[in-house]
Structure formats: C-alpha cells, structure tokens
Amino acid sequence: MVRGDSAFGTKKVITACLAEGVEFSLSVSRNKRLTAAIEAIAEDAYTPVHYPGAVTDPDTGALISDAEVAETPYTLRLPLRLGRGRTITVRLVVRRVKNARYPDGLFPVWRYHPFVTNSDLPSTEADPTHRRHAIIETTFADLIDGPLAHIPSVIWS
C-alpha cells in the first residue's frame, strides 16, 4: 500500500497506483468540491475510532474517543494525459477530531482530515492504517533534532 500526505494525494500518483495495481491511502488537499463532500456526510455516519487515550465506557461498552471516522464515495476525473480522461470512484475517508482550541464550546468544533483510498478495509481500520505514513516523518524529526543534529551536511574529500 502506498501511503502519503497531501503532497502525494495527486491524480498523477493515484493514476500510477492504479496502473500498477497498488492499493493507496493518500491525504488530499481541500477544495470546494471536497469540502462539499465532507459536509454532505451525515452526522450519525461518524464512528469513534480507537486511538491512544480512547477508553471504553464501562457501563455501555461504547468507545469514548475524540476521533471519529466516516466515509463517502468520491469521484475523480483523471487528466487526459494520465488516465485517458476516465473517471474513477474512490473512498473518501474523513477523520474528524475535536478542535482543542475550543474545549468548552457549546457544541463540538471539528477539524477534518480527509484521505482517499482504494483499500477494502473498514473505515475504522483504514484510518489508523493510513496514519502510519506519519511514523517515518516523526522518526526523521527525532533523528534530525537528536543524534544527527551536528553531523556536517557536506562531505569533504
């Protein structure tokens, strides 16, 4: 599976994945059409997803989490030069988390994190699988800020 952030969530990358028969899970940049698709998802379609810090209610067994996911079909028109002008429908999976800047709001304020995928994982599994792309970014940041911070960037011969 190819996983990536919004820099990789392009029609060109999606076309390459499809051409090679590869599963993909790619964050996508927001635009008017994507925002409209997210807003069209019914409130009751969102399901809590288990992340660190999520707990199970001892009385009901329900998951208590600040992260929820839902999905909707999303149609992309591939550019003529890449996909011969064809359209494809992918799964638009949206993770939403409560915005920490508004903890005492009258109603929850959400931040939305959309990605497209062609996997058949349920949304509650597709999202944690997608988020694994960020692990390497954290590892790089730790290395750059830690043991690699003082390594010269130029090799002298």
Q: Look at the structure and give the mean pLDDT.
A: 82
Strand order of the largest sheet: 1-2-8-7-6-3
The largest sheet, given as strand count, sense and whether it forms a barrel, is: 6 strands, mixed
Q: Estimate the global geometry from the Cα principal axes.
A: globular
Q: Which CATH architecture is right?
A: Alpha-Beta Complex
The share of residues in extended strands comes to: 25-35%
Instruction: Tell me the count of domains.
Output: 1
Structure description:
There is one protein chain. The protein is an alpha+beta fold and 157 residues long. It has a single domain (2-140), classed as Transposase Inhibitor Protein From Tn5, Chain A, domain 1 (Alpha-Beta Complex), CATH 3.90.350. 28% of the residues lie in helices and 28% in strands. The strands form two sheets. It has a six-stranded mixed β-sheet, sandwiched between helices. A two-stranded antiparallel ribbon has the order 4-5. It is globular. The model has no long low-confidence stretch (mean pLDDT 82).
Task: Please provide a brief summary of the model.
With 157 residues, the chain is an alpha+beta fold.
Key features of this structure:
28% helix, six-stranded mixed beta sheet, 28% strand
Reconstruct the topology from this structure.
Blueprint: E1 2-4, H1 11-20, E2 24-27, H2 32-39, E3 47-48, E4 55-56, E5 63-64, E6 67-77, H3 80-83, E7 87-98, E8 110-117, H4 123-131, H5 133-145
Parallel strand pairs: 1-2
Antiparallel strand pairs: 2-8, 3-6, 4-5, 6-7, 7-8
